[in-house]
């Protein structure tokens, strides 16, 4: 659910709340992410050790989805699940993951009534009905989590601030009542915020990691160079940590180039022109609804040389000054402005750390020596059409796993 802040006073109030919530929850993020990534790496090693096939072939996309959902849910609602529970039909994590993936899919598909509005009542493709059912499923799961949090408070079971999750922080900072922001109640605001953070933080993070590994597998020279950087800057006697990421310039360039080619949201959310303006020779009246094509911006040959090629070195040379934060309009993988991705910090931490750990800990090759297909699937998060499978082999001492 999206809402529009209707006054400068409400904007200021919302910004102050966001700051308080971010500061209170910040200490959780790095620790929880590290623990989950540790578990993920151990799982990869266990899969390799227990595989009856040699070399060991693994569905990396599936494991990455479980990892990013666990990190997201632990940070937002304090939930921890085993990876296997995401495959257990009708379990709570199975229902939520299925509904999130369905929501991302439905948000990005073509609905005929968008082009021919008078056909909306017919719901010819069944998408409107599917959207309503998915919305109800998501609301039911999140409402249950919110009820659990409120009950803990009633029963006096809330832990210390360091043990609080994002939902706890929001409950603490929002007074109960029907009109907190633009007429929405506290509970609606909390549920909507938890949902959008999961959508942007879990689904898109796994997708970005999948694309990054797919690109590296199809470009073994780049993969080798990234591993050589890790060996030089970190070594093979210990695992790469969050504090090491700033030294890994080539790894950072790989992540930027992945986000350029496959932005988490190829289209921005709907914006509105605040005044009359002219864009590319077209007059845009005030009040016009606007959608920016980020995918097209990132492949504009006037800005990017060989725009469809995977060339991380461009972010070390010609485009070294570009950042993720939306200050350079030619590179806005997380959009720009106040409505940019709310989970950017956590998402970037997880992407860099997970990718670094995988490359440091394992040699990866394609299945049967064949190139990875790079077909894009339907959905607002630009998913890969087919799951990524790869052959893995540990490259560090077994005592580290």
Automatic annotation (TrEMBL):
Transit peptide recorded as keyword: no
Gene Ontology biological process: terpene biosynthetic process
Keywords, ordered alphabetically: Heme, Iron, Metal-binding, Monooxygenase, Oxidoreductase
Domain of life: Eukaryota
Entry-linked Pfam families: p450
Cofactor(s) the protein needs: heme
Family per similarity comment: Belongs to the cytochrome P450 family.
Protein name: CYTOCHROME P450 82G1
Organism: Salix viminalis
Taxonomic placement: Eukaryota, Viridiplantae, Streptophyta, Embryophyta, Tracheophyta
């Amino acid at each position: 659910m999206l809402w529009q802040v209707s006054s400068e006073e409400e904007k200021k109030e919302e910004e102050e709340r966001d700051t308080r919530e971010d500061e209170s929850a910040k200490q959780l993020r790095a620790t929880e992410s590290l623990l989950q990534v540790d578990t993920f790496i151990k799982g990869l090693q266990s899969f390799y050790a227990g595989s009856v096939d040699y070399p060991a072939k693994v569905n990396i996309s599936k494991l990455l989805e479980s990892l990013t959902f666990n990190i997201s849910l632990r940070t937002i609602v304090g939930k921890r699940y085993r990876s296997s529970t995401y495959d257990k039909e009708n379990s709570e994590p199975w229902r939520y993951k299925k509904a999130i993936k369905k929501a991302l899919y439905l948000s990005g598909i073509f609905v005929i009534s968008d082009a021919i509005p008078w056909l909306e009542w017919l719901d010819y493709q069944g998408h409107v009905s599917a959207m309503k059912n998915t919305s109800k499923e998501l609301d039911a799961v999140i409402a249950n989590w919110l009820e659990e949090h409120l009950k803990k408070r009633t029963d006096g079971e809330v832990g210390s601030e360091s043990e609080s999750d994002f939902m706890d922080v929001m409950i603490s900072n929002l007074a109960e009542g029907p009109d907190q922001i633009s007429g929405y109640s506290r509970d609606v605001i909390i549920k909507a915020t938890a949902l959008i953070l999961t959508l942007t933080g879990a689904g898109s993070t796994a997708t970005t990691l999948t694309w990054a590994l797919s690109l590296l597998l199809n470009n073994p020279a780049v993969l080798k160079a990234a591993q050589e950087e890790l060996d030089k800057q970190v070594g093979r006697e210990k695992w790469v940590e969050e504090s090491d990421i700033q030294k890994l310039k080539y790894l950072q360039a790989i992540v930027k180039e992945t986000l350029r080619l496959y932005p988490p949201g190829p289209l921005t959310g709907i914006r509105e022109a605040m005044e009359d303006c002219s864009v590319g020779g077209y007059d845009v009246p005030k009040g016009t609804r606007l959608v920016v094509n980020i995918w097209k911006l990132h492949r504009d040959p006037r800005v990017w040389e060989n725009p469809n090629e995977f060339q991380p070195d461009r972010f070390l040379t010609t485009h070294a000054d570009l950042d993720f934060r939306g200050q350079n309009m030619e590179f806005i993988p997380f959009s720009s402005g106040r409505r940019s991705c709310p989970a950017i910090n956590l998402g970037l931490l997880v992407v860099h750390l997970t990718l670094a750990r995988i490359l440091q800990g394992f040699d990866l090759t394609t299945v049967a020596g064949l190139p990875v297909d790079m077909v894009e699937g339907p959905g607002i998060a630009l998913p890969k059409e087919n799951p990524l499978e790869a052959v893995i082999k540990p490259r560090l001492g077994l005592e580290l796993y």
